[in-house]
Each structure stands twice: as structure tokens, then as C-alpha cells.
Amino acid sequence: MIKFMHKYAKFFYVFFFLIIISFIFFYVGPIDKSLEQLALVEIGEKKIYPDEYWRMYENMKNYYSNALKEKFTPEMEKELRLKDIVLEGIIDNELLLSEAINLGIKVTDEEVNDAITHDPSFIRDGVFRKEIYLRTLELSRLNPRYFEQKKRDDLTIQKMRRLIELAANTKAEIPKEFAGALKGNEQAMESIMKSIQDEQKAKTLRSYMQGLRKIIPVKVRAELIAWEGGDGAKPVV
Asked: Which residue ranges does UniProt annotate as crossing the membrane (predicted)?
């Protein structure tokens, strides 16, 4: 698994980006700022606090644990640099959201409503259940207005990401030395072309994010999420 992820790191980044978008705002309630916490990340005027980071980190850790079962060991988590990846994902999403707002990219009320009413978490027997929706938010200590705003932000980020990917050169071509060997094997051809396209999109996205970091101030206090006493110890927040 680890060797596979290293070998296909570019494609894994795209996969991860899709995952973290789905977790970045979901079931993360407002943080009580009365405790005068230091911000872990400052992106322009936006601040991300350690509590928010750890919730997102736990969401991501649980995702991999559920997906990989016993294969997801502490060693794998460490080799994947999960802590760093979650932090980078948070920063990237906030940068994309900031730039989308600057560019005037909007999400309509209808789009937000459609995303919520088609969310599997709130559907039973093929139908959206408002009572399940409200109960789920209540259990997560979220009010509908807050959740809907975060869903709007989520959709805005996705729109921004798709816009960037449109700039990628997606006209993939199989190298001539392999084209002959793959002739007649349409399934293999399509699989390879998709991998090439994904790599091009990942490169375009990374290049764009690097550019954003040069023009939007980003301050990170990494010491706020340092492990105390080594592996497996309690995080310092």
C-alpha cells in the first residue's frame, strides 16, 4: 500500500484533495474563541485554530481506518505524513476559497439546497428526510444556517478547483513506443490516458496553489500541533 501511494503520489494527491473537501467543513462546529487560543494558521484575515485542525485530523484518520481496516497502522499513518497532509489540505482549501471570493465565484441557494437534499447522510428509502437532517445537525452541535454556509463554501471550493483544472492540458497522448503494444486494448489505453490526465491536473493545481501562497499571506504555528513526548502521545493544543 505504502509503495503504491509513493509510486502514484501525484494521483493520490488528487484523491486526497477530494476526500479532504468532504471532511473540511462537515460536522465541525463553531469553536469557542473565548479561551483566547492562538491561531494555528492565519490566511489573510481568516484564522484556523488547533481545535479545528484536530477535529479534521480525526475525521481523516477515521476515514483511512475505516477504509483500510487493520492495514492502517501507526507506521502507515506516520509514513503517509497524515498530520502534514491534513494541515496542507486545510491551507489549500482556505486559499482556494479566498481566491474564489476574490474572483466573484458564487454558489446559488438552489445549488446548496440540492447538495444537502442529495447527501446520503440525510436520505432514507431514497428520500431526503428533513427530520434526520435537523437531528444530525443537532447531535453535531450545528445550526442549519452555519452548516448551510459551510456547505456553500465547500461547493465554492469545488467550483474553483474545477476552474483551475480546466486550464490543464487534458489532451493526453500515449508515448509512441507504447502505442503499438496497447493497440486493440482499449481498456488499458483508457486507464493510462486517465492517469496521464490526472497527473496533468494535479500539476496544474499544485502550481496554482504555489502561486496563491506567494500573494496571500499564510502564517503557520506548527508548534501548536507538535506531539508531546514522541509518537502516540497527546497532542499539545
From this structure: 12-29
